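Q: What does the assembly look like in three dimensions?
Context provided by user:
Components: two
Sequences:
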Amino acid sequence: MIWQIELIILVLVVLFGIGALAVKDLLSAAILFGAYSFMLCLLWAIMGAVDVAFTEASVGAGISTVLFVAAVLRTTRRTDD
Amino acid sequence: MRITGLILILLLGGLLIYGALDFPIWGDPQSPASNHLSPYYIEHTMTDTSVPNVVTSVLADYRGYDTMFETVVIFTAGIVSFFLLRIFKKAVPESRLYRHIPTGVTLRIEKGGKVPDESNHFERIDSVWIPYDLVIRTTCRMIIPFIQIFALYVIAHGHHSPGGGFQGGVIFGASVVLFAIGFNLRQAIKQLGEKFVTFMCALGVSIYAGTGIFCVLMKSKYLDYSALAALFGTDPVTARSHGILIVEIGVGIAVMAAMIMLYYNLASAGKHDEGL
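A: Here is the predicted structure of the complete assembly.
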């Protein structure tokens, strides 16, 4: 695999992870978490774990983002800390 | 409080990283897993189970107990969302919105007003007003059958390609969630009722556990699918492949139902009335 692409994706995973924790708006945090999952899915695919990548794409990036958005809609968009 | 939490997290994270240092390095050919375990699976999968995808055979056959209790965890998540969030008390809302379908006029009916019956002329819409969008509805209507066919393909073709019960179940659940978003939650619940979904969730786990019990009844070990050879009329190796398929279908049903249950309860805050 081309290591430059791998490095870019790895940096993006870390950036999205920190962003999802740091951002004040919970809806943005949910979307950033979806982006984090998607980048992680690409990383699994690069490492040859296609089954794990498939699960990560469907569960992490797909349905859990929807569930997070639904939970944010029914609670609050602002976080206290 | 924040400082305490930070110190605790740094401590536990440090402990985790310290523990992870003892792992063999990634792809190390001398590690125990690469020496005994992985070569056995890679060399014996075809002769043992006749499943080309090693991941599927490890998941559902060699490590069958693990996957069964993962399914139980998913089932528990669905049940917990029901017990924590579900509200049965029907509070009469302040006002309700209805759309007159032939003209597209939106009606607001105050508390105590006469509510039109659900007919072909009136359609109830959510209080968070959403404009009637023909494009979204038509796209959903066209795309949902293909998503569901793909989900079934992922479950059925898990022996030969990436995929299996978990992924297929999640994709099937996502198609129902898409229906609930594109149309509305009440219509989705009318199609797939709460009782039906809960029953399906329990049924999926029962299929998995029941297959294991059936193997015991056929005088073999729990989840040893080669005992099913007499039932299918095939040799024990093919029977293991068929057993994996049955178990994957059970996992798929349980995961699909659990995802739908989670969505129903989270999106409507347990009221099952107005959703996302």
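Follow-up: Residues 49-89+133-267 of chain B form one domain.
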